Amino acid sequence: MIQPLLTYPDSRIRLISADVRTFNDEVHQWITDMIDTMKAHELDALSAIFIGLQYNIIVLKIADEYFSYINSRIIKGSENSIKTEKSIYYDGLTAAVDRFEEITIIYEDVNGNPSYTTLQGDIARIFQQQLDYCFGSTFVDRVDQETRERINDYLTYGLVANAGSCPVVFVRDYFKRAARYVMGLVALSFVIPIFGSVSLHRLTYTIDTYLLISVPLLMLAYFFYAIYESRQYKQCTSCQIGNIIGTTAILSFQLLLVTLEVVFLIAP
């Protein structure tokens, strides 16, 4: 059945969608309604919140087929790019948004079976946009402050209040990026033993040692600041804690690999 779509200034767009816990005929009907609504409005993607369902459900149209993703999470993203986006919520409004060009996601199908897949290009971007809606955000939350203020002035009633939803960008991410940049810089030094002199070899090892010492400090800063941020947004603390632990574990493993490479390749 075709359902009415949420449009500006309906504040329900800011509601944080819950995960689906019971996979039954009702869930099948929800997805059928989403597909019917997509066909009626010629849409390539839709989040359940757009038809008033506060559940983490996304339907994508890919090559004339409809695919449902339930309880989705992005576990990996790469190759950022900035492109102009629009939204059926903010009619006539566009903005340049920075997103991943490729993402790996985990999700459950309509029967509750866990799965994962990789999305690329425009499909990946559309999926990220829809996932934002599941967590109470819109693409406006991803633009800089100056652009957001201009959008706020342009809209008749201003931007819809955040209502305490989780931000799409956390301060802790800067610590994570810094740690990865440092490890990437160290990794670049692995060619020194091939082309460099002995003295340069030793200097590189000393520099790498100090750089690697900074990584655990950045990881500690990430972990403790992440815990602090998660307490500021208690409505999404549970999903944040899992991401924090997972990210810290991944960073630790990457640090171990880089350290071993330095020991075996760079150490005099």
What's the helix and strand layout?
Elements: H1 25-41, E1 45-47, E2 57-62, E3 65-86, E4 94-108, E5 114-120, H2 121-134, H3 145-154, H4 172-188, H5 192-195, H6 198-232, H7 237-266
Antiparallel strand pairs: 1-2, 2-3, 3-4, 4-5
Helix pairs in contact: 4-6, 4-7, 6-7
Oligomer: single chain
What value does the average pLDDT take? 87
At CATH level 2, the architecture of the largest domain is Alpha-Beta Complex
Number of domains: 2
Tell me the overall shape: elongated
The main sheet orders its strands as 1-2-3-4-5
The helix/strand class is alpha+beta
CATH class of the largest domain: Alpha Beta
Give the amount of beta strand, in percent: 15-25%
Distance between the termini: 71 Å
How many E strands? 5
**Count of individual helical segments:** 7
In which range does the helix fraction lie? 40-55%
Over all CA atoms, what is the radius of gyration? 22 Å
Give the helices and strands as they follow along the chain: HEEEEEHHHHHH
